[in-house]
Structure formats: structure tokens, C-alpha cells
């Protein structure tokens, strides 16, 4: 492609610069005069085109890998040598592009018992300073079948940073979905509003609920629960996996109670079930997490759409955010700080 394009360009340029009546001869002469440079550029342009073509692998045409390597090396290198060392060096760079792009395709067709040896020769010895790595799919190797998680996961954030961003998600959503398991194994979810966070290190969730409701029977059957939050606007979400603890501790209820909660219980006019903090139906569900996973968006709506669109065409993985995990050890540490 580079040689053809360059030849056409110089022939047109030669024709335009020639007198009328001699333009055809001028075009041929110009193309012949620039043939060495055109040939040298073939290697570079061919390598760059092949690299770009590989980037859009979802729609690329499958070319013969050996032919791409040989043509880039022989045509680019030999013709460029006529123009001197500088042009030949440029073709050597083009040859490297061609090898990087097409070498792994050729290795797939190479006898299996020689693949590892040839791989080490090309990618470890011949190209020791390569700035990127590729998966050539050698026999016995395991491809990464979930590239999204490995790319999105951030294990470098500190516990303080993790909890800070987690709190931002919860505050922005306000309503979580509490999921419990019934005795027959069925999972039931319902919307719940957690009480206000009491400290910067709090990882537990506290909910007020009516102890006459079905969820209490399910928690007594199996205390393992999940609480999830999802911000539809930013796409950030959080998931708590932990143990639910039921309490009717008067001090705890008084500490978190506010008048707006009365509307969820109602006054039954029997002098006992008044819907206030002393109502015997009022109970607290505290979810103490074993692990918290959340995803926080790092790009806005336009950025997410742009990245998703590009990766849909190129076959890449769209990760406009970070996936984080607050481990059991980190939770135990922060819970100790929260209760002090």
C-alpha cells in the first residue's frame, strides 16, 4: 500500500511539473527517480498500516502472516539500502513493526514443539525492549477470559480511600436493596434506606424495620444477606455481602431514630403500637459486611459513551471506572476504629 500510494503521488507530482505534451514522460521519470525512497517508505508505511489494521482486528481481513513479514523486510530493506544507511535503518524499524504485528499469527501455524523456542527468540532476544506484550495463545497457556475485571480492578487504593469513595456512592443513591433468603431457598429483595453514616470509617449498615415483616423470618432462617446500591446516572454501584443482626436495643434505636420513621409504622390506636421509637414493632437490622465490592465511575456520560463506542469497533475492553474490594481484614480494622 505504501509503495503504490507513493508511486502514484510522485507520478502525479512529476506530471504537474512537466511541460504540456511531456507530462506522461515526466510522470514516469519522477516515479523512477523516487523509486528508492518510495521503496524504503514502503516498509515504514506498510508496518504502520499493518499495526493499525491489527488494532481494528474485529473487521480486519486475515492476511498471510509470513507474507507480511517477508514483504516488509525484503522490499523495504533492499530498496531502502540503495538510498543509504539512514533509509535502511528506517526499514529496520518497519520490519520490527511487521514482526510484532504478524509474528504471533505465524507462530500459531508453526509446529507446536518449536513454538516456545521461536517465541523466546523473537520476543525475548530479538525484541528485548518491547513496550507491550501480546498473547500468542501457545498450547497450555490460559487466555484471560475476563479482561474487564483484570483491567478495572484497583488494588492500590488505601482502606481510607476505598471507604471514602464507598460512602460517596451510598450518599448519592440513598436507597439500597436488601436481599434475604427464604427457607425454601428463594431470594427476596426490598428497598431499604440506611441510617446516616456515623463516621468516616463506618462499613456496617443500619436499617429500621418492622419486626412483624417477612424479612425477619428469613433473616432468622439465614443471616447471610446482600445489600446493593446503584447510581443509574453515574453507573457507580456497591454490593455488601455480610451477616444481618437484629436488635431492639433502646439506646441504639434512640440514637438513630427520627420522626420521619413513624410514617412507616403507623399508629394503630391501641395505646401500644403508636409508631414511635417505643413501639415494640420497631427493630434495627445491622448488616456487618464480610466483604464489600463496588465500582466507581471515573468518566462522565460523554467519556463513557466515547470509550464504549471505540472499543466496540476495535475489540477492546471498555473500563470507564475502577472495581474495588474492601476485604474482611480491612473491614475488621475499620470497624474497630469506628466503634472507638
Distance between the termini: 71 Å
Q: Roughly how many Å is the radius of gyration?
A: 33 Å
Strand content: 15-25%
Describe the main β-sheet briefly.
Answer: 7 strands, antiparallel
Q: Quickly name the level 1 CATH class of the largest domain.
A: Mainly Beta
What is the arithmetic mean of pLDDT?
A: 75
Written account of the structure:
- This protein has 340 residues and is of the alpha+beta class.
- The chain has two domains: 1-104; 154-337, Pnp Oxidase, Chain A, CATH 2.30.110.10.
- Helix content is 49%, strand content 17%.
- It is built from twelve helices and seven strands.
- The protein has helices spanning 2-16, 23-33, 35-55, 65-81, 85-109, 112-126, 147-152, 159-173, 214-221, 250-256, 301-314, 328-339; strands at residues 176-181, 187-192, 205-210, 224-230, 237-247, 282-297, 321-326.
- Strands 1, 2, 3, 4, 5, 6 and 7 form a seven-stranded antiparallel beta sheet that branches.
- A hairpin with a 6-residue loop joins strand 4 (224-230) and strand 5 (237-247).
- The longest helix is centred in the N-terminal third of the chain and has 25 residues, at 85-109.
- The protein is elongated and about 110 Å long.
- Mean pLDDT is 75; it is low at 55-66, 100-116 and 121-139.
- InterPro entries: Split_barrel_FMN-bd, Stress-Dev_Protein, YdaG_split_barrel_FMN-bd.
- Residues 161-315 form the General stress protein FMN-binding split barrel domain.
- This is Protein bli-3.
